[in-house]
Amino acid sequence: MLEALDRRDVLLDKIVDALLDHGVADLSLRPLAERVGTSARLLIYHFSSKDKLLVEALSAVRIRVAKSLTERSAHERPASLNAALLMFWDWATAPANQNYFRLLFEVDGLSMFDRVVFSDQAVRDGTSLWLAMIDRSASSANATLVMAAMNGLLQDFLTTGDLDRTTAALDDLLDRFSSSSTAVRKA
Q: Looking at per-residue confidence, does 110 or 38 come out higher?
């Protein structure tokens, strides 16, 4: 039984890598199985359905991202929300990490049109990771605002490739956020 779980974990890692490289828009089990070196029948055996496979793969993506960001944060120890957001931005815009967000944005877009369907819990899990990371340094309302702004800037960067412009916009946003926080505290 343990060996089967190990094989399943290895298979899930290969699936995640394939999704990061090819996306999910035209996801079909047979081509995915070929990419990861197995059969569609074994994918169903291990994951029950394509939908459950996708939910587990996206969870694994979020775990990879969280682990990498946690390690980076432990190393850099950002002292403020602004420093943490700049650290995140630097990490997220690095070429090696861009496919994580391309995949997550693709899934968000497809789910808006019900082309992929997730349980309410799977949707909450996806959002809660980001909110929890931001919420350590901001209020809940600010965490939602910051997450939305970061999502927009990151999606803009991934769409246009204009790192200079989107980074300048992030810097401006952080300046405004810092100024409004200071103004509120002084009042």
A: 38
